Structure to design on (337 residues):
């Protein structure tokens, strides 16, 4: 669960009350008795804690009356504060507040991260794969129990509606690389897509849809691409029957956590020295293949030949061992997508 605002208000009120009484007490002893700031503070601490140390100097009648009033109000304020703090600790609110504080600090450092809106079965699977790929991400979830689960799993979480502009701003949408909208309700998914696109005109958006009609609406709302779990599930089952070994291999290659083989892509910057060179000039070495090239205009070159040339802003789709893929990225200076 997310922190209860009631406890936060109570703790803030009790702390403010104690600080106010300390300030009044220090000022009162200094004004009435003419003591130094340190002596006045010492007297206030001794009075509030009732530890029984000697007072700095004998009190005047006015000082005694002021001390009586300070004891009556101060003990009440301290008792109220300790009771609130103890109750918050027993209810787990302190843990949630500390977690919330850590989340806010982490949120401020996120750059080029991914935002997953919805942490149900699909959203949690997306988040797990992104984490396996070593990516930073933020979860936006309106269900308190799901948000709490994501927080316990070590994720940066915002509790609220994914279509809320202020919440999207908190999630660092302006700095994000991409957004996955995985909420199950089509109307909500399309509305959130529109909100995200209005807030960031360039970020990549993948939206979950159920029907072709939903897909058309989501694309019109600003989605970069759409995903239908039912269609993908049906496609995978059919290919599993027709080409079981190929399907098993591709499943392994698509998993970021698999140690032996992975499908990845690198973007070629316009300033890269490899622009204009044929593929055979790339220092791929053994164990890495370029299986496709996506051109700047969106055209896809499948199974490119050795003489196909690299153009500015191409995206090379590679398959190979993860260590070799990282080496290719280092050698070419290309940016992983």
């Amino acid at each position: 669960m997310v922190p209860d605002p009631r406890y936060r208000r109570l703790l803030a009120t009790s702390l403010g009350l104690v600080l106010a009484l300390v300030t009044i007490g220090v000022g009162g002893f200094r004004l009435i008795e003419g003591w130094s700031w340190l002596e006045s503070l010492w007297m206030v601490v001794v009075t509030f804690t009732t530890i029984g140390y000697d007072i700095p100097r004998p009190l005047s009648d006015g000082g005694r009356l002021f001390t009586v009033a300070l004891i009556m109000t101060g003990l009440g304020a301290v008792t109220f504060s300790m009771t609130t703090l103890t109750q918050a600790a027993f209810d787990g609110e302190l843990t949630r507040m500390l977690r919330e504080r850590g989340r806010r600090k982490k949120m401020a450092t996120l750059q080029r991260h991914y935002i997953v809106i919805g942490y149900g079965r699909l959203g949690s699977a997306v988040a797990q794969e992104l984490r396996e790929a070593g990516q930073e991400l933020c979860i936006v979830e309106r269900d308190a129990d799901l948000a709490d689960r994501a927080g316990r799993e070590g994720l940066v979480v915002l509790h609220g509606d994914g279509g809320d502009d202020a919440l999207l701003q908190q999630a660092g949408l302006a700095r994000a690389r991409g957004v996955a909208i995985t909420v199950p309700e089509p109307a909500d998914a399309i509305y959130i897509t529109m909100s995200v696109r209005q807030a960031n005109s360039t970020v990549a958006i993948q939206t979950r849809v159920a029907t072709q009609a939903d897909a058309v609406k989501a694309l019109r709302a600003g989605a970069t691409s759409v995903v239908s779990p039912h269609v993908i599930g049906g496609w995978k089952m059919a290919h599993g029957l027709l080409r079981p070994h190929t399907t098993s291999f591709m499943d392994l290659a698509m998993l970021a956590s698999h140690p032996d083989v992975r499908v990845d892509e690198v973007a070629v910057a316009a300033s890269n020295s490899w622009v204009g060179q044929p593929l055979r000039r790339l220092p791929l070495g053994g164990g890495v293949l370029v299986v496709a090239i996506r051109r700047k205009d969106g055209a896809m070159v499948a199974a490119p030949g050795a003489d196909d040339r690299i153009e500015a802003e191409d995206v090379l789709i590679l398959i190979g061992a993860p260590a070799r893929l990282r080496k290719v990225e280092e050698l070419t200076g290309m940016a992983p997508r």
User: Anything to note?
Assistant: The two ends are 34 Å apart (CA to CA).
